[in-house]
Specification:
By secondary structure, the protein is an alpha/beta fold. It is built from 15 helices and five strands. The chain folds into two domains: 125 residues, Rossmann fold, CATH 3.40.50.2300; 190 residues, Hypothetical protein af1432 (Orthogonal Bundle). Bound molecules: fe (ii) ion (2 copies).
Length: 375
């Protein structure tokens, strides 16, 4: 049985019979109605794809019937088969009935059959397009849904990664801190020295407006600046009296030893030169060591650390003297600005000391790595 049905509507029984004869061998089912009302009842009771109607009929004209069908079942393909080809009827059928074709009586048999086949194709094609549109819409919804889920997952994973990264960075800094503490522990007098130099240096770096990444490098370099003292004899490090020139030469090796110790650590490669040059003099004079670099040749973190180191050392007690007051430190900074120290670093330190006073050199301060990494 065919899934195509055409309904012919005509008030002349002879015409309907002729049509049925003509369609006998076609693969579609053929229904006939002699009135508009009867045609509409058919449409309610079964699926029909094509309607072909006469125009002049009692009670309801063909145009009225097609217009009613268009309102109720717009997908049905509508055609008019009429002997009256007046312009106004054709225009009405097109405008109100939105018809697919207008066929004139008497018709050509083959043409009529061909037109019907086209009408079914037209119906099927429109149905297929509708179906594809529906499928596309559904797939779009599914895709949007998947996208949302995916976005959520990516957000979640990104957050997990960021958290892990944060944990790792904290662990990294804590490890370096432990190393620095081990160095300072060699001498009771220098306990906390490296941490404080790191803190002072990071404050200077911030005041200089350096980017976060560089502030961190300055802090880490501050922590590690004296790591080379591991390689200097304890007797020299902890000697309570002033050092002899030979012993002083031994101490002066610590920046190079430190650089050598850190060299193999890949993630500290930026820190190595900062450690190596933290005792260079800004004027490039022979007082500086180990390479007698000058000015901008000296890494900025090294210049910052030298000032921090000096302030920390001068304000801390030593076996042979007490920590010095800030005025003495300020005087010293002024005195050596431009020779030992980068004047820019001295200015920044003087500002910090002016702003914070004694608070700046508090002994128990620590760099707040959590706060630093979170911001
Ligand atoms: Fe040092
Ligand atoms: Fe130091």
């Amino acid at each position: 049985m065919s899934d195509h049905t055409v309904l012919f509507v005509d008030d002349e029984v002879n015409i309907l019979r002729a049509i049925q004869r003509l369609m006998r061998n076609e693969s579609c089912e053929v229904l006939t109605a002699s009135r508009g009302a009867e045609a509409l009842e058919f449409l309610e009771s079964r699926p029909i794809q094509v309607v072909v109607t006469d125009q002049r009929m009692p009670e309801m004209s063909g145009v009225d019937l097609l217009s009613a069908i268009r309102d109720r079942q717009p997908d049905i393909v509508r055609m008019m088969l009429t002997g009256y080809t007046e312009m106004n009827v054709a225009v009405d059928a097109i405008n109100r009935g939105e018809i697919y074709r207008l066929i004139t009586k008497p018709w050509n048999d083959e043409e009529l059959k061909a037109t019907l086949r086209q009408a079914f194709d037209h119906y099927d094609l429109k149905g297929e397009i509708r179906r594809l549109n529906q499928v596309t819409r559904e797939q779009n919804f599914k895709l949007q849904d998947m996208n949302r889920t995916l976005e959520g997952k990516v957000r979640e994973r990104t957050k997990q990664l960021a958290d892990k990264h944060q944990e790792l960075r904290i662990a990294y800094v804590q490890t370096i801190r432990a190393l620095a503490e081990a160095v300072d522990a060699k001498d009771a007098y220098t306990r906390g020295h490296s941490e404080r130099v790191g803190v002072y240096a990071s404050k200077m770096a911030r005041s200089l407006g350096l980017p976060k990444e560089l502030i961190e490098r300055v802090y880490i370099s501050g922590l590690l600046h004296d790591v080379g003292k591991i390689g200097v004899r304890d007797a020299v490090i902890t000697k309570p009296d002033r050092l002899t020139p030979v012993e002083y030469d031994e101490i002066k090796e610590h920046p190079e030893i430190g650089a050598r110790i850190l060299q193999p650590v890949e993630f500290l490669s930026d820190v190595v030169p900062c450690v190596r040059h933290h005792h260079e003099w800004y004027d490039g004079s022979r007082n500086g060591y180990p390479d007698r670099l000058r000015g901008d040749q000296i890494p900025l973190p090294s210049r910052i650390i030298l000032v921090s180191d000096t302030v920390e050392a001068m304000t801390s007690d030593r076996p042979y003297r007490k920590g010095m007051p800030l005025e003495t430190v300020v005087r010293e900074l002024h005195k050596f600005s431009g020779s030992q120290f980068d004047p820019r670093c001295v200015d920044v330190m003087l500002h910090l000391l002016e702003d914070e006073g004694e608070n700046f050199i508090q002994k128990n301060q620590k760099f707040d790595i959590h706060a630093f990494l979170e911001v």
